[in-house]
Amino acid sequence: MKKVSAIILTAIMTMSLFAGCSKTNSGTSTTQKTDSLQKVKDSGVLKIGLDDSYPPMEFRDEKNELVGFDIDMGKELAKKLGVKYEPVTTDFNGIVLALKSGKFDAIIAAMSITDERKKEIDFVGPYVDGGQIIIVKNGSAIQGKADLKGKILSAQLGSTGEQAANKIEGSKEVKKYDKVTEAFHDLSIGRVDALIVDGQVGGYYAKKEAGTYKILTEKLTKEPEGIGVKKENKELKDALQKALDELKKDGTLTKLSIKWFGYDIYK
């Protein structure tokens, strides 16, 4: 009887131990699976990854302060979520990897929604219907894509502008720049013959430095731009989409469009 009782007691203790382990493991699993939206709200901050050299979307003004369409929109989105906006500057070429590693909560950096990027991250939006254009120095004989044979092209490294430039047949070279501001500089001094860039960016520079650049009428691509989020962050993605829809509906994005582009892109 003592042996039987001992065996039964051992069995009960073993089952209790496994039950305890099961509860502990379950609790650990629940802790590990965090609510991405709640995490942002608990921290009180929405961290946004961006490249700070892409006017008029995001750039630094004469006071070295971050300004631009994406900056203003990011602040409005953070306000909708009831938190503060915190920009995190990152080279665009590595911005997706930085998002996936948890350096920030989302990307708002004029990022085109492509099939390739959708394999890596999810998108909120689009919030801008962009596309790649050709911009040349004023007085250039280049009239369209066909005239780029044998020419030196330029684009921002890691951008869809770089992809579009690489697809142009017959060009002599495609120079790639970490910052689009550097590409515009080289175009202005004749170091490159043409720049492939987002339409709103080209339009901003053409207006800002009137007489320096010329935008060609031919468009190379149509590219909707969105907000990048990690695939597992569904709660945050849904909240940002709701906030973005509200900003469109209440006219906030229209006001920002007129402020930075000179016209309403949402009409």
Automatic annotation (TrEMBL):
Subcellular location: Cell envelope
Solute-binding protein family 3/N-terminal domain ranges (all copies): 45-264
GO cellular component: cell envelope
InterPro entries registered for this protein in UniProt: SBP_3_CS, Solute-binding_3/MltF_N
Domain of life: Bacteria
SUPFAM superfamilies: Periplasmic binding protein-like II
Entry keywords, A to Z: Signal
Pfam assignment, any one: SBP_bac_3
Record keyword Signal present: yes
Stretch forming the signal peptide: 1-19
PANTHER family named in the record: ABC TRANSPORTER EXTRACELLULAR-BINDING PROTEIN YCKB-RELATED, MEMBRANE-BOUND LYTIC MUREIN TRANSGLYCOSYLASE F
Family: Belongs to the bacterial solute-binding protein 3 family.
Record-given protein name: Amino acid ABC transporter substrate-binding protein
Species of the source: Clostridium muellerianum
